[in-house]
Write a structure and sequence with these properties.
With 277 residues, the chain is mainly alpha-helical. It has two domains: 104 residues; 109 residues, no CATH class. Pfam families: HNH_2 (PF13391). This is HNH endonuclease.
């Protein structure tokens, strides 16, 4: 899938599918109203999956969702007053992309797959509690002896955040021997799994599509402020020329233990081209 093939009204479905949320068919398509705006139910379902309550208004809720996955909400580009609706219509394509990219970083691949498996244990269009949209549920029959019937929901949400043990990150930790692929930092708590080809562009969770990066470098990589040249060496955006990151320019990315886990140079070049460096 390439970015120019994805229409704005497809992003709610893509994001819901990624989180394993059962679809609701609106008058304008999956999760879309007749007016072409995202349905309130979509915001509620995604919010439940990543533990963000509905904020009383669509745009405000979308902002909270983006920020929940460490994205930066920019009202000047992520909402617009020129749309047909005063609610969901104010959410722009850029906002959906920011949320999806944040989820790619924050939601473990193994947990996203688990969530998709859970779809099959829930009746379509009905939540496990008998009302409202179908969200991510365990599908386990209700047992009055169970202390809290919401335990499974909370457990799934807890697994859908970065502090879990994502398989993708675990594989990268092994591949790069627990050290940042740029700085060789070995503090596990600040090491993150960065996708080279994003999920929305057809990227996979193969180790060869990832780099183990220190959290701040991961952010720079995802936001287009850091990339790699044809020699697999660090290049920085001019904005960082006088920053503390300048000494990283020219540093060659570390190689994984297993050559089969090596990110193709072509993928690094494509990333650099995509972010405009």
């Amino acid at each position: 899938m390439t970015a120019d093939r994805v229409k704005k009204d497809e992003y709610p479905r893509i994001i819901a599918d990624y989180l394993g949320i059962l679809p609701i068919e609106g008058a304008g398509g999956p999760w879309m109203s007749r007016q072409g705006t995202v349905m309130k139910e979509w915001l509620e379902a995604v919010g439940e999956a990543i533990d963000v309550p509905y904020q009383g208004e669509k745009v405000r809720t979308m902002a909270a969702l983006v920020e929940r996955v460490r994205g930066r909400w920019d009202s000047s580009t992520m909402s617009s007053k020129e749309t047909r609706s005063g609610g969901g219509g104010n959410i722009t394509e850029r906002a959906f992309i920011a949320l999806l990219e944040g989820l790619e970083a924050d939601v473990p691949a193994s947990m996203a797959a688990r969530a998709r498996e859970l779809q099959h244990s829930v009746s379509r269009g009905q939540s496990a509690h008998g009302q409202g949209p179908a969200h991510v549920k365990s599908g386990r029959p209700f047992d009055a002896t169970t202390p809290d019937r919401h335990d499974d929901d909370r457990a799934i949400r807890a697994l859908l955040i970065r502090k879990g043990q994502p398989q993708f990150r675990a594989h990268l930790l092994v591949a790069y021997e627990g050290r940042c692929a740029v700085t060789a930092c070995g503090v596990g708590e600040v090491l993150e799994a960065a996708h080279v080809v994003p999920y929305r562009l057809g990227g996979t969770y193969a180790t060869s599509n990832g780099l183990l990066l220190r959290a701040d470098l991961h952010t720079l990589f995802d936001t287009g402020l850091l990339a790699f040249d044809v020699d697999r060496r660090v290049v920085l955006h001019p904005r960082l020329s006088d920053s503390e990151y300048q000494p990283l320019v020219g540093v060659q990315v570390r190689e994984p233990v297993d050559p089969s886990d090596r990110v193709p140079t072509e993928a690094l070049i494509a990333h650099r081209k995509r972010v405009g460096l």
